[in-house]
Design a protein that fits this description.
The protein is α/β, with parallel strands linked by helices. The protein has 3 domains: 221 residues, P-loop containing nucleotide triphosphate hydrolases (Rossmann fold, 3-Layer(aba) Sandwich), CATH 3.40.50.300; 68 residues, VC0802-like (2-Layer Sandwich), CATH 3.30.2130; 45 residues, no CATH class. It has 14 helices and 14 strands. It has a 6-stranded mixed β-sheet with strand order 6-7-8-3-9-10, with helices on both faces. Strands 2-1-4-5 form a 4-stranded antiparallel β-sheet, covered by helices on one side. Helix 5 runs parallel beside helix 6, helix 8 packs across helix 11 and helix 13 packs antiparallel against helix 14. The radius of gyration is 25 Å and the shape is elongated.
Length: 362
């Protein structure tokens, strides 16, 4: 079992009259990439800043390498690199001047800064921008420079707040590859993000935070297995009488969570994909449908997050899936969105849930 490099014990933090972090207990292990996911305002940034002593706990403790962060703040800061979402480098300095500036803040020698900055810039693919003014860099380069500044003092722990936010898919991919390279060099990395696809690709473990609470922690695979009830079947047939197919599936008591359409494809979410696929193949033989394409997709981390946060806020995920299915059926039968909305509100469904389900209709 790897040793914890960070240990949070009953950590709570208040701002004015609001409790932002609520009795958090969490271990982060040496040499892992640990991602913290949650919506805006969930407490991600507050938690990250508490790790480095920027915010003192109102109760509880944060330990790094068995040292209380609140009592050893200066020592802790020297063993941590922190890159905030908004960036901390100086736009008017060159790339190298920024690295030199941050190196001097840590008391590093000129010789070490020169050697280590070249190594960093090579690893960040920024060596040819060494003399470029920072404000002239692209968005992706600025993000890499910010990470380089956080690593200039060669810390064993790197904390990144939303490192790929606001970047296009290609630049995000480059940042993810960079994070993996840094981790393979022997560093522990803690990341906050709301981009669940990125988190799923890069993380060893994930913590889900909502309203200041850690709801669960695990590997992406273990969280999917624990919370995702449904697999996705994507089916395309000819001539494509999907309504008849769904009717027959219901008549055979198939377990369908909900059904939707994607271009010329039928998309079925079910907790029993293997059985439903067998039923589909039998129905196609009965009805003369011809298979063009079929794919079964595993549940995503996004579905886990949705299931957990809905449970946290009092919305049962199974009921939510049933609502989706009922709304889609009503829409296919010719009911307008306004008619469906009024009917659901009369049945006391909350307006936020209603609008989310209606937004998924074509």
């Amino acid at each position: 079992m790897p040793r914890p490099i960070i240990r949070l014990k009953s950590l709570s933090k208040n701002f004015k009259n609001k409790q932002v972090l609520k009795n958090i207990n969490l271990d982060i292990y040496e040499n892992e990439i640990f991602s913290l996911i949650g919506v805006s305002g969930a407490g991600k940034t507050t938690l990250l800043r508490s790790l480095i002593g920027f915010y003192a706990p109102d109760s509880g403790s944060v330990y790094m390498n068995n040292r209380d962060v609140s009592k050893h703040t200066d020592q802790i800061k020297r063993s941590v690199g922190f890159a905030a979402q908004e960036g901390s480098f100086y736009e008017g300095l060159t790339v190298f001047e920024n690295l030199k500036y941050f190196g001097k803040l840590y008391g590093l020698s000129d010789a070490f800064i020169k050697t280590h900055s070249d190594q960093l810039l090579n690893s960040m693919n920024l060596i040819h921008e060494k003399k470029t003014i920072a404000k002239e860099l692209s968005g992706g380069m600025k993000r890499r420079l910010d990470i380089a500044c956080a690593l200039i003092h060669n810390p064993p722990l790197l904390i990144l707040d939303e490192p790929s936010a606001g970047l296009d898919p290609i630049l995000r991919k480059h940042i993810l590859e960079l994070i993996h390279r840094i981790n393979k060099s022997g560093r522990t990395i803690v990341v906050s993000s709301h981009l669940l696809g990125d988190v799923e690709k890069m993380s060893h473990r994930v913590g889900i935070i909502s309203d200041g609470n850690i709801l669960d922690v695990g590997t992406p695979t273990s969280l999917r297995a624990k919370y995702s009830r449904n697999e996705e079947i994507v089916l395309e047939t000819f001539p494509g009488d999907y309504k008849r197919l769904i009717t027959k599936l219901h008549s055979k008591r198939a377990r369908l969570a909900y059904v939707t359409y994607r271009d010329h494809q039928l998309v079925i979410y079910t907790p029993d994909a293997e059985h439903v696929l067998r039923l589909i193949m039998n129905i196609m033989k009965e009805t003369g449908e011809h298979l063009i394409d079929v794919d079964v997709n595993r549940p995503s981390l996004s579905e886990v997050f949705e299931a957990l946060t809905k449970k946290k806020h009092g919305t049962d995920y199974g009921h939510f899936a049933q609502l989706r299915f009922s709304v889609q059926n009503a829409f296919r039968k010719g009911h307008s969105k306004e008619q469906i909305r009024n009917n659901l509100l009369q049945k006391k469904w909350d307006s936020t849930t209603v609008e989310k389900v209606l937004s998924e209709l074509p």
